Amino acid sequence: MTAVTNRRELLQATLAAGLLKSAQAAPLEVPVLCLLNIHAKCSAEQIRNFRSNVWLEAFRNFAACGIQLRVVERAGAVLKHPSGRPKFVGLERGKINVILTNYVPANWDKSRYLSGISTIYEGCHVSVIAMNRAHGHRVPFVSVNTVVHELLHVFLQDTFVSRGGMLQSQGRESRVDWYATGMWLLNEGSSVRESAQEYLKRLTMHNGLG
Fold first, then answer.
1. In degrees rounded to 5, what are phi and psi of residue 126?
2. Is residue 62 part of a domain?
3. 54: domain range?
4. Is residue 178 part of a domain?
5. Looking at the domain assignment, is residue 18 inside a domain?
6. I need a surface site. Which of 121, 135, 136, 177 has the fewest CB within 10 A?
7. pLDDT at 112 (0 to 100)
8. From CA 128, how far away is CA 79, in angstroms rounded?
9. Tens digit of pLDDT for each residue in 107-122?
């Protein structure tokens, strides 16, 4: 009876380990609303190149690390409030709103010619990508895929904290490029996936969906 019990317990433990492994291997689904700015001054060729190179590379990088971007695509618009602050048409709460356009709003860019920026704006989680400046992976730790870089700021929860000084900002940028390089060259993203899980919980709480 003891031997049978031991074998049964061993079988149960083995099955439990298998289920745990399967659960860990299951992709983490992240809701993404991709909004193409109808006023974007990008050629059809620039948009095609962005989608087939930068966007696809980012999608594959995250998928290889167990993060599935569940993307819905729609038309949107980037306008201005009378005060000059950006006004984004088409945003949704409870999702990462990726806005594809040809520039980062001027009062965010501050003449730095940024290819992207991520923040929480008017209650929505936003990543603005300038398609004509965006690029794929180029140099490890220094110049990585623009979309990967911006979404990592989101998943690593940088958007929940104040920007702080230059030193803090540079530290976050270096950290993001470090993780992006690991995803790119090693398909290593376990820490990113864990942080993304926490981010989704906070996203749900932030929007009162829990």
1. -130, 135
2. yes
3. 27-206
4. yes
5. no
6. 135
7. 85
8. 13
9. 898 878 899 999 999 9
In a domain, 6, yes or no: no
* Residue written as token pair 């317990």: 9
Q: Read off the pLDDT of residues 122-138 as tens digits, 9 standing for 90 and up.
A: 999 999 999 999 999 99
H helix and E strand count, the chain: 7, 6
67/62 Cα distance (integer angstroms): 5
Q: What percent of the chain has pLDDT over 90?
A: 74
Q: How many angstroms separate the Cα of 84 from the Cα of each of 37, 106, 130, 153?
A: 18, 9, 19, 25
Task: Name every residue whose Cβ is closer than 8 Å to that of residue 92 and which is 6 or more positions away in sequence.
Answer: 33, 124
In the chain, the number of structural domains is: 1
Residue with tokens 């470090």: 178
Residue type at position 147: V
Tokens at 183, concatenated: 């995803």
Question: Residue 153 maps to which CATH number?
Answer: 3.40.390
Q: What span, in angstroms and rounded, lies between the C-alpha atoms of 84 and 65?
A: 39
